[in-house]
Design brief:
Number of helices: 3
Low-confidence stretches: none
Radius of gyration: 21 Å
Structural class: mainly alpha
Largest sheet: none
Order of helices and strands: HHH
Length: about 80
């Protein structure tokens, strides 16, 4: 009887390594959104061109997208 109880053990769907990878992906997403923020002007009558720099238009969205892809990998990785 004891051997059948050991075979019917119920565990978590995800392992500790999955949660660590999910945390890394979440940090990447948050950093991407932080990099996207900003670009406002102190004077509302003056247009600020820094809103369209490489960091906000290219780097940050790529980091956010990569974070989401990494999250999918972290969830689907077998423990």
């Amino acid at each position: 009887m004891s051997s059948s109880n050991e075979n019917n053990k119920v565990g978590f769907a995800l392992d500790k390594s999955n949660y660590i990878l999910m945390g890394i992906g979440l940090i990447a997403i948050v950093i991407g959104f932080i990099l996207m923020a900003g670009g406002r002007s102190n004077d509302p009558n003056v247009f600020n061109e820094s809103m369209f720099n490489f960091q906000r238009i290219t780097l940050a969205p790529m980091l956010v997208f990569g974070g989401f892809v990494f999250e999918i990998y972290a969830i689907l990785k077998k423990p």
